[in-house]
Structure formats: C-alpha cells, structure tokens
Amino acid sequence: MQALAVDFAKMDDFTLLVLDIGTSSTRALLFDGRAQLLTDSIVQIPNAPRVTPAGDVTFDADALFAAVVEAVDRTLATPAAQRRAVRAVAGCTFVANVVGLDAQGQPLTPLFTYASPGCAEAVAELRSALAAGGVRAVHDRTGCPLHTSYLPARFHWITRQHPEWLNQAQRWLSIGDYVLWRLTGSTCTSYSVASWTGLLNRRTLQWDEEWLERLQLSVERLPPLVEAAPLSVGLQPEWARRWPALREAVWIPLIGDGAAANVGSGAVSAQQVALTIGTTGAMRVVVPAEQPAVPDGLWLYRVTAQEALLGGATTEGGNLLAWLRETLRLPSLPEIEAAMAAAPPAAHGVHCLPFIAGERAPGWNEAARAALIGFTQSTTPLDLYRAAMEAIAYRFALIYRRLQPCLPEEGRNSAIVASGGALTASPSWQQIVADVLGRPLTLLQEVELSARGAAILALRSLGVLPALDALPPSLAATIQPDIARHRRYQERIEEQSALYARLFG
Predict the structure, then answer these.
(1) For position 12, what pLDDT does the model report?
(2) DSSP string, 333-388
(3) Which of 274, 351, 267, 363 is nearest to 315 (CA)?
C-alpha cells in the first residue's frame, strides 16, 4: 500500500485526532502541531470486556467499534473541534488481539486479547512439538516468547477447539485494523501492531512463514504490513457524510499502546528507560531495530520499521493493590500512603509472589500463581500491602537487570521515566520503586501519554516534526533512591527469586 506524500510542515493550525483504544476505555482526543493536548476535546467511553470460564478476556469487536464512533462523534462536537480543522487521524490500541471476519466482513469470533490463560494447554503442546531449540528460535525470530499472550497460542487453540473458524474466517484483524477497515475500506496493519502478535519475523518484517505453516494459517488472510505513515485512503461515504470535518483528513495506521507510551514519555532512545505501572506494568526502551539477539525473558517489538522496543511486561500492578484494598478492607488511600511512607523497607517478614493474574516477564510461566509466605499472627493487613508493593518492584528490578546490558553507558546511569495511574498516585510506591531499582525516577506533568506518543509519531510521519525527541515532555519531579535501602532490597530480590524457583522451577 502506498503512503501518501504530504507536507504539513508550514501549517500553523495543524490539528490531529487521536484514537486511543484501551481495555478499560476508548478515548478520542485532539492534539495541535506541537503535540499539545486540547483538553476540552477529550471523550472517554467505557469498554465492557467479557471473561470466559477459562479466564480469557475478550471483547465484542462491533461494540468496540461503536465506542470509537461515539467517541469521534462527541469529540468533533467539542468547541476545540469547532475552532480547528482536523488534518489527520492516528491512534494506538491495546495489542496482541485478533478477531476473525467471515466472507461478509462480519465478526465470526470474539475479539481475543493478550489475557488468554485458557491457551495454556496450547502453549504446552507447541512447546513440546518445538522442543527447547525450537522455542528459543521462535523467541529470536519473532521477538516474542512462546506464551498465552501471543497469537501462535491462540491460533493453535482455535485449531483444536474451533477448526470451523479457521475454515470460515476470510481475514484476521486486530481491533485497530478493524476500525480502519470499517471507516476507510483499507486493510492493513502497522509493523508496530504486528510485532505484538508473535507472528511477525523481526528480521524480514514479513509474516513468519514457519509459524503460518505450522498453524495452517494463510498469509492472504492476514492484513498487509505497512509503516505507520499516511495512507492513500479516505473515509467511506457513510462516514464522510457523518463526519464532514474528517473528509479531507489523512489516515495513519494505529500503533501499539506500549510503543506510543514510550514516545509520549520522551523515552525514544536507548539512553532512556520508561516504566509504566497502571493496572498492569511494563518496562521498555527504544533501541535500533537490528538487535543481534533478544535477551532471555524479554520481548522485542517494533515502534516503526527502524525502531524497536525492548522490554518486559507484567500482569501485576495496580490490580493487585486494588484487590488487597478491597479484600483486606484497608483504610482510605491517604491513610495507606501515610503508613507506607513511615514503614521501614522489607521489615514485615513476608515474601510475596505477586502473580494475581499469572506471570509474564521475565519468567513467562503460565502456571505461576500468587503466593504469600512467612506471615504470622503479628502480620497486619498493611504489612501484606507493603509486601505486595515491594514484590511488584522486585519483578521490575529483574526486568531491568536484563535490559541493562543492552543500554549504552549513559543509559545505565540515567533516570527512569515513570508513568501510569497506579504509580503516579502513590508517592510511597514511587520511593519504593526508586529504592529497589537504585535509579532516580522522573515523573512527568504530561497526561494521556499513549495518545501523546501516537500524536508525535504521526506528526513526524507527516513532516511536521523532524524527530521523535523534538518535543520533550514537561517534567514534574525526580525521586532519588536511598542507597542503603537499595542494598537491603537486593537481598529480598534474591530471596524472592529463590522462592519462585522452589515453587515454579
């Protein structure tokens, strides 16, 4: 598919519509040519996931599309949209999701997501068939470990459980691809989104032939691969009539939300690591695409064809703390914060494995489950809460250890950019994470970082910005680590790792 050559570099009133499709909500927002959010343009529509008996999180693709339509309707009705012409549409989505469409373009399957514990048996079967050498080769070839989070496991599960879907589905699209297709008639996916599937060969930037053959998946049923750059497409007549403000807008394929978050945080080179802790968490760094190998326990996705995203994601984060607050009937958040700030490091005697929703990086063990070891009659609910906060930080310390050899010297010594609602809402947790990592944490004033990153990438592709680092984010504060506490926490990390090995191998 050809990219559209557009030069907007001299347009002072440039306005960009960004779609941000997340698991909890769908947002539409407007940004100006300097990636400044027009705050009166934000519209947020809650999403309603479904959970299968096996624990898989799925969506109705048409319901998500309807949320996008409603969000666009409402954003275009805001005063900001009335004042400024929208020149382009871009966005980001949660990734490693897929829906099968029938011959009429109707969803044949649920929209499956990365939260797929029901595929554990499929992973075990694939691991057995590939053997150790094959599993390592898959990781190196695609940048993705063999795990329930990725589409090889989902398609193997479909082969076993619903072979009729493979026969009837004419194409398989992510939610971002589905939205683009419904609105413009264009079928494609960005390298960024494709890299999260586990089906993209990271060296050839083509759908991986070995996986397609093993999974009996025709390449014609997958979308063409493109850069996240302007497309030679426009709105379908139905939508052009509905949204006259978008009739002349340029469309850009959506990217993965993790890649967008790094760019929005200003972490756009190997000198800057980004940490996000919301419901779940991730630690990522942008590196050149030509990585000779993928470190064990980490993944390597794409931002663009030339820029890769190295890191690891966890299933635990604010979700575990929210569960503890509800289950243990803890006091208000301000009271918890005061107690956590006053507590000494790792003084509760409790060892915690925080896998409330299974494990991703760095162990990728589908069988891992949460555990609390060492509590006594004197252990308080707040002790358990503190143990969980520290335990989640330990997991990121293990990811950081694997990232460090891939960083230049200045990257190993620089502050880590921190974001995510769960982390930024808790100063005590920020200090714990800084102490555990032994690195300063830089907090940002910017909001809607994923949408901001999608805007910056779009602006660069349109020629409005010369580089991804042209608009550094505004800083809020830097949290300095306590080195004595850092040393204490290193001992606890080793104890947690030993407990993990005893329980899960």
Answers:
(1) 58
(2) HHHHHHHHHHSPTT-S--EEE--BTB--TTT--TT---EEES--TT--HHHHHHHH
(3) 363
333 and 273 belong to one structural domain: yes
| Domain presence at residue 45 | yes
Q: Report d(CA 32, CA 27) in Å as an integer.
A: 17
HSE-up of residue 218 (Cα within 13 Å, Cβ side): 9
The mean predicted confidence, pLDDT, of the chain is 94
Residue 258 amino acid letter: G
Say if residues 47 and 23 touch (Cβ distance below 8 Å). Answer: yes
- pLDDT (tens digit per residue) in 393-448: 999 999 999 999 999 887 788 889 999 999 999 999 999 999 999 999 999 999 89
Kindly report the three-state secondary structure assignment for every residue of 309-320.
EEEEEECCCHHH
Same domain, 237 and 204: yes
Domain that includes residue 53, residue range: 15-253
Distance CA(264)–CA(138), nearest Å, equals: 30
Assigned domain for 6 exists: no
Q: What is the pLDDT of residue 2?
A: 43
CA atoms within 13 A on the CB side of 206: 8
Two tokens at 378? 């004197």
d(CA 367, CA 321): 21
